[in-house]
Amino acid sequence: MAMKKNLFLFIVGWALPVCALFASEVTVNQDDHAILRLKDYVGDVQWQRSTDGSTWQNINGATADTLLFVADVTTWFRAQVTAGWCDPFISETVLVTVIPDGGTGSCPTCPGSPTVADAEGNEYPTVMIGEQCWMAENLKTTKYRNGDAIARPATETAWRAATSGAYAVYRDNEVRKDQYGLLYNWYAVDDDRGLCPTGWRVPTHDEWTDLERAICTSETCASDFPYDNSTFSWGGTNEGNKLKSCRQANSPLGGECATNQHPYWVQHATHYGTDAFCFGGLPGGARSDPGFFGLLDTAHWWSSSSFSGEHAWGRYLYESNGGVGRYWFYKHDGMSVRCIKE
Question: Residue 21's domain spans which residues?
Answer without folding.
Answer: 6-102
